[in-house]
Amino acid sequence: MRCFRKRSAIPVLGVLIFCLLFMNLYIEDEYVVEEDKRLKESSTHQFNPDQYVHTIRDFSNFSSSINVTYRILAGIPVSRKRFLTIGLSSVKRKKGNYLLETIKSVFEQSSYEELKEIAVVVHLAEFDLSWCESIVQDISRKFSHHIIAGRLAIIHTPVQFYPVLEGLKRNYNDPDARVKFRSKQNVDYAYLLNFCANLSDYYLMLEDDVRCSKNFLTAIKKVINSRKGSNWVTLEFSKLGFIGKLYNSYDLPRLAHFLLMFYQEMPCDWLLIHFRSLLAQKEAIRFKPSLFQHMGYYSSYKGAENKLKDDDFEEDSFDIPDNPSSILSTNMNVFENYDVHKAYSSTEEYFWAKAPSSGDFYHIVFEKPTKISKIKVCTGTEDRQNDILHHGILEVGERLVGSKRNKKCTTYLRLGDFKDGNFETNNIDRNVLFNIDCIRILVTKNQNEWLIIKSISVWTIDSNQ
């Protein structure tokens, strides 16, 4: 029996409760909360949003910024809008400090052209001001040219803008110290997101103990371009915690409010899952190889050991396919929701069809004729190693005919056969004299096994220059 649906880690009841809470944020009532009332209610163990909305003026407008005053410790807010803002939040650790190494990795792994498109904002979310001053001096000495260039800023949120952090609800039976740590962390990130909302088109969330892959920005841009026309809330470039989570900047105010509203409910990475689910992205969209690696040995919580590593991380991930925008189609019998779009990306998802017959096809039609240097197709998975394309060829075509949603090429050129379920060929532009309009995977013999197309990767000439 084939049973393949992933079981959600979030109970259905919990999701429904959060949906109701989230919908409640749009009620047009006016809330006025006095400071003494907030202090009296801070010890309650019931969910009560009134106790921590003292920084929110308009409860019904989730697109507005949070009313908080920041201290700019170094640098200035960027004068022009960049493509990507990278946000780092850091606190004093009992053991180890990786912040400077993380900043160094961001800059060293970026080319001169990439540096023009990024801004880095460091939020020193520590109430020990002497520690903050010391860190600012260290960063300023080592990265002065980036500060002067306007691509690095350091901010701090004064303690008076923080909600109550004592006597919070002990969800999951966590000890008080753990509840306080993770609740404050939610607020730290909320204020960082709030500050970064208008600095760039996209926002990347990192931790302060991360190593970056080379030219990670170029890889991210390729992924964004490949998903034009599709709706997404979060794109993930690491499988660990909240490392490498990418957002559209227009979603940052809502996410900041969301973290602040539910700051004492659960850890930040869990709240991020709820947020994207409530905005209708039900499944994670994660890309391989991972572009960011956790490098810290000691956690920021009590200096505990944290040896988590992302085994999908690659130091040099520049050779990521750019998969130009396309219309995808097939005549195979698709299993459940494993549709054609899930193969044409670097995500963990895949296309899955019931046993194909000779003549069945998977068809890719590009929006415009394209020069291609390399194509790679992988079928089957580790769990389903026999669900590969046992007999098939890959063709490229030109001269499109047909309606907008049902186009096909009139001429095809065979590039080669699938071997052990895989296909890969290079230097296509040297052997194919025409600009390519479409790619066709063609089944050449009936097979009893089902077919998984795990990934289809296309490199264009522009992506390799």
From TrEMBL:
Residues 51-313 form the MGAT4 conserved region domain. It comes from the Eukaryota. InterPro entries: Glyco_transf_54 (IPR006759), MGAT4 (IPR057279), MGAT4_A/B/C_C (IPR056576). The keyword Amino-acid biosynthesis does not apply. Pfam families: MGAT4_cons, MGAT4A_C. Pathway: Protein modification; protein glycosylation. One of its GO terms (biological process) is protein N-linked glycosylation. Gene3D superfamilies: Galactose-binding domain-like (2.60.120.260). One of its GO terms (molecular function) is acetylglucosaminyltransferase activity. Residues 328-454 form the MGAT4 A/B/C C-terminal domain. Keywords: Glycosyltransferase, Membrane, Transferase, Transmembrane, Transmembrane helix. The chain crosses the membrane at residues 9-27. PANTHER family: ALPHA-1,3-MANNOSYL-GLYCOPROTEIN 4-BETA-N-ACETYLGLUCOSAMINYLTRANSFERASE C (PTHR12062:SF14), N-ACETYLGLUCOSAMINYLTRANSFERASE VI (PTHR12062). This is Alpha-1,3-mannosyl-glycoprotein 4-beta-N-acetylglucosaminyltransferase C. It comes from Pyxicephalus adspersus.
